[in-house]
Structure formats: C-alpha cells, structure tokens
Specification:
Elements (H helix, E strand, L loop, with lengths): L3 E4 L5 H12 L3 E6 L2 H11 L5 E5 L5 H9 L10 E4 L15 H29 L2 E5 L12 H21 L5 E7 L5 H6 L4 H8 L7 H13 L8 E4 L15
Parallel strand pairs: 1-2, 1-4, 2-3, 4-5, 5-6, 6-7
Helix pairs in contact: 1-8, 3-4, 4-5
Length: about 250
C-alpha cells in the first residue's frame, strides 16, 4: 500500500519542498494551504490528483480544518505521516514596538492550529502506527532579540512534540521536532512585511539552509525503521553558530 503524508503549509518554502520530496520517493501527499491557485499548481506538478490531494483552508479556523479533513476521499483518508509545517513569524521588533495582533496571529497559527490538526488526526495516525513531524526552530532553544512571541511559540512546538512522545510511545507512533536555523524562503519576506532589502541583507554571503535541505531531513526522519525515533533535531548552516552572551553596559 502506498504511504501517504499530510503536509501543512505546502504552498511555499519548506512545505512545498517536503511534499515534492515525499512524492519523489513514491509517497502520495495531502497538501494544505490558504492559496488554492498555488495548491492546484503544486498538485499538477506532482503528478495530478492520483498522487496529490489539495485541501485549501486556514489552519487557524478549527471548523474549516474539521471540514477539510472530513472531505478527504477514500484514497487519501488514511495517512501515515503528519508534517506540521504551517507556521510563520511576524515582525522583528522588541517587545515595546511589537504588534499585539501579530503576536496573536503567530500563536493562533503556530500553536493553536498545530495542536488542532494534530488532535483531529491522531486516531488515524495511531491506527496506521504513523509519524508526526513538527517544524519548530532554533528559536525554540536559543533566544535572540525580536524573537519574543515567535520563539515562545516554537518552544511550545518542541515541548508539545516531546510530550506527545510520552503519550504515544506505547502506540507505535513516532514524533519528531525538527528545529531549523537560518533558512532562505518566503518565511523571511512574510516576517519583514515583504522587505526585500532586509531579506537580501540577512542572507548575503551566509550560504543559508534551503527548503530542499529541510525536506531531505524530514524525509530521512520519516524513512527510518519504525522502531527508531528521532526526538528532536536541530539543524543549522555551517556558517551559523551561537553568539556571545549579550551584556548591556550603562
């Protein structure tokens, strides 16, 4: 039986590359996102509706998430992997300049949306003895200026993943938190409100991770023998490392 992966946030960046990587290895995929045109293009590029099935909805909307999952046809209803990739960062300001609505959007997407779709799919994943792969971030482990709520949401994703491991270890369901560092994708344009100058400055000369690198990592984790679990995996480009402690001097 052909394995199936459900990949959230597949219209760009990591999710798009992850869906392509799974299909390359003979999997079928369910791809989700808010932009129907991009989902339709991706499905066509992956080989059509026999290989990929699109679900267009906003992961922040619980009822829309329920309806989308309920609409899956028989050929896609029983999936073996959930890749919780949908997420975003908004803003780089310190706390006193931050936008409260942006904070709420990050929490609704990165935390509430992720736990909602996980809870709604868990029975299928237990039945299939599948795998849950959650995309966290190095921001879940390392604090930096401007990461305030974004970093906190990703710390939640990591801790949620580890707690799921405790609940699911007897069910045969694997759970992994993948924590990428500097990665070049639409993510940074979204975070900076489309500021291409800031995007170019961030990545200039840094040789950052690419979406295909994370896709390779996600697929590797999913393809391991079913008795092996990668609890968490932090990935950075070689050029990125830890900074000295910040010291404010009067």
């Amino acid at each position: 039986m052909t394995p199936i992966a459900l990949v959230t946030g597949a219209t760009a960046g990591f999710g798009n590359a992850i869906a392509r990587r799974f299909v390359k290895e003979g999997w079928k995929v369910i791809v989700t996102g808010r932009r129907q045109d991009r989902l339709d293009t991706l499905v066509a590029e992956l080989g059509g509706p026999d290989v990929a099935y699109p679900l267009c909805f906003d992961i922040r909307d619980e009822e829309a998430t329920k309806a989308a999952l309920a609409s899956l046809p028989d050929g896609f209803a029983k999936f073996d992997a959930l890749v919780n990739n949908a997420g975003l960062a908004l803003g780089t300001s310190g706390i006193e300049q931050s936008d409260l609505e942006q904070w709420k959007t990050m929490i609704d997407t990165n935390v509430t949306g992720l736990v909602t779709i996980t809870r709604l799919t868990i029975d299928t994943l237990i039945e299939r003895r599948g795998i849950i792969i959650n995309l966290a971030s190095v921001a879940s482990n390392w604090s930096y200026p401007g990461a305030n709520v974004y970093g906190a949401t990703k710390a939640f994703v990591k801790r949620f993943s580890l707690n799921l491991r405790s609940d699911l270890s007897a069910k045969g369901v694997r759970v992994t938190s993948i924590e990428p560092g500097m990665s070049e994708s639409e993510f940074t344009l979204v975070r900076t409100g489309g500021n291409k100058e800031a995007y170019d400055k961030l990545y200039a000369g840094a040789n950052p991770l690419q979406p295909e690198d994370i896709a390779e990592t996600v697929y590797w984790v999913a393809s391991l023998p079913p008795h092996m679990n990668i609890n968490s995996l932090e990935v950075m480009p070689v050029t990125q490392a830890w900074s000295p402690f910040a010291v404010h001097r009067e």
